[in-house]
Backbone:
């Protein structure tokens, strides 16, 4: 399996900087807003809970958990990128119950059974071992805990173009050369069950883009096309035809993400 080191950028392969703006812009899209609302409701966070957000990025979800856990709860954001952790710390510095730590989610600095809720959103696509990361999430979860995980399946990326072969080439480029774990979304229910948890809900979420500029920021239309060209996956004529059409014709792209909720099966016994 490829390691993230083979992939130059862990956040977005498409932007060299401005990660917070990138994540914020993404979080404001309808599909992301919708599934984040569902994920929060599935987590069923209560006052006093300890909520851990693995791969918290710029910390966009932390304030919501802080509001739900209240003054007696705790929210822990984990990110291995010190720059992202600094952004998350800065964004939550007015929230006394929020702590952000720099750590790798494959090896968490947290005790077993110390979290009531664990949230993972678009992180496993970047990690070396999704099964190892999910096993860590299962380890820190209390027997009464809940896990909600949302990841894309990049194989479902479909971009409209008169030459459908070019669209397939582009999707294959994402699968083979851009995203470390491109199809992890579909594997999450299996990985979660292998970690000893029971899956309680699987929700496919379809992202839809009709604005080419917004899509370019997330899907990296220009950057990935340039990479495909320099790697010889597209000829110069194909690359030109692909980009010219996308930038001038009515645009449409879709991709499916999988949102999966889980908990330990013996939850009633654990409560009793
Ligand atoms: C696409 S961002 C998602 C951020 C956040 N979950 C959100 O919904 O806005 C992925 C984040 O995962 C982090 N990440 C990737 N691999 C990681 C690892 N092994 N350990 C900790 N964080 C990781 C990246 O640094 C990045 O901040």
Residues:
């Amino acid at each position: 399996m490829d390691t993230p080191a083979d992939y130059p950028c862990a956040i977005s392969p498409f932007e060299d900087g401005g990660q917070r703006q990138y994540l914020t812009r993404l979080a404001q899209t309808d599909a992301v807003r919708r599934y984040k609302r569902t994920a929060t409701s599935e987590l069923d966070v209560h006052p006093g809970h300890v909520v851990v957000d693995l791969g918290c990025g710029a910390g966009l979800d932390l304030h919501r958990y802080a509001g739900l856990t209240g003054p007696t709860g705790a929210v822990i954001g984990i990110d291995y990128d010190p720059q992202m952790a600094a952004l998350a710390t800065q964004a939550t510095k007015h929230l006394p119950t929020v702590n952000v730590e720099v750590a790798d989610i494959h090896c968490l600095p947290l005790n077993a059974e110390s979290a009531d809720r664990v949230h993972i959103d678009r992180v496993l696509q970047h990690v070396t071992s999704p099964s190892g990361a999910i096993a860590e999430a299962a380890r820190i979860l209390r027997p009464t805990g809940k896990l909600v995980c949302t990841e894309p399946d990049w194989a479902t990326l479909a971009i409209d173009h008169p030459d459908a072969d070019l669209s397939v080439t582009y999707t294959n480029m994402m699968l083979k050369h851009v995203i470390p774990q491109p199809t992890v979304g579909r594997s999450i229910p299996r990985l979660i069950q292998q970690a000893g948890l029971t899956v309680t809900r699987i929700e496919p979420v379809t992202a839809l883009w009709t604005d080419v500029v917004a899509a370019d920021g997330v899907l990296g239309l220009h950057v990935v096309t340039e990479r495909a060209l320099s790697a010889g996956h597209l000829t110069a004529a194909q690359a030109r035809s692909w980009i010219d059409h996308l930038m001038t014709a009515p645009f449409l792209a879709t991709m499916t993400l999988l949102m999966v909720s889980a908990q330990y099966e013996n939850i009633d016994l654990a409560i009793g």
Q: What stands out?
A: The chain has eleven helices and seven strands. The longest strand covers residues 141-159. Strands lie at 50-54, 74-79, 98-102, 115-121, 141-159, 198-209, 253-263. The pocket of S-adenosylmethionine is lined by residues 10-11, 23, 27, 55-57, 60-61, 78-81, 84, 104-106, 121-123, 126-127 (CB under 6 Å).
